[in-house]
Amino acid sequence: MKQLESTGLQSHNSFSVTASCRRLFALEHTHDLAELKKLQLQTPLMLGAGSNILFTTDYPGDIILNRLRGRQIIDATDKHAYVRVQAGSDWHKTVLWSLKQGLSGLENLALIPGTAGAAPIQNIGAYGVEISDTLELVEVWDNKNNSARMMKAQDCQLGYRDSLFRRQPDRYWILNITLKLSRVPRLRLGYKGLKQKLDSMGVEQPQAIDVANAVCSLRNEKLPNPAQLANAGSFFKNPIIDNQLLQLLLQDHPQLPHWPQENSKSKISAAWLIEASGWKGHRTGDAGVSPDHALILINYGKASGAEVWQLAENIRSAVKNKFNLLLKAEPRIIQAN
To answer: What is the C-alpha separation between 275 and 248, in angstroms, rounded?
Structure first.
């Protein structure tokens, strides 16, 4: 396990907020895991690309940067291929790599920032597809038992932007994931705007790579690049509510976007709720809401994590007051005890 000299975290989180930790390590080989006990780690936190975390304060313990990288086809049939991806591998590059191998299943998830290890934690999803659609296995380091173990996808309790790993964030460290991808493309084009984008690109018979290109174009149009404007993507989850409550909301707000879910529930648009509450494009100092997409909170330069979180709290309060709904944050929020 390599210990880094600097404990600064600004370059290790996509919000680019200033924070530090007790010690900072880089995990580059799985055999280093057996040496963890010798390090006497204090409240250790495993961090990938830092694209789904907000430090509102310094982290009091040790942070380990997941730098386990690599991807390979481990088994294949005429119809499918099983791909193992190390957790520290860049997610978007993994999508592009899979397409070059003639495999489909990840094209709708192109250009999502972060690492492969973060994918099952959030059960990342976009344009009608979630990682749960292709996930087979997750190898983890179990901090409770100090050993590696393999978990089947169904044991990971994947839900909408949720998983066992999110609910027990420090017990399991993801080492690699195994995906079942298709050699015979079964394109998912039902999401609003995706087919229209392909049509505008002049693509009449799309292939998987065309879908990925269309998704990248849509994301670039709607979402700010974290390398240019520091952000963590969608900051709030879309609320899932009972249909009875939905009907009450639609009486006063018939234009509220909503999508049917299982068990007599519906998902409603958090972006619409925020915009209807008057917060789209709002800015306080260097902490602001994107003028193009109300779900994106931005650090325009020197905002602290605490200032970004205060903005989020103000938005949550405004939505609660107007709609009696409390928005939930997608990123993990690191706060002082």
So the answer is: 19
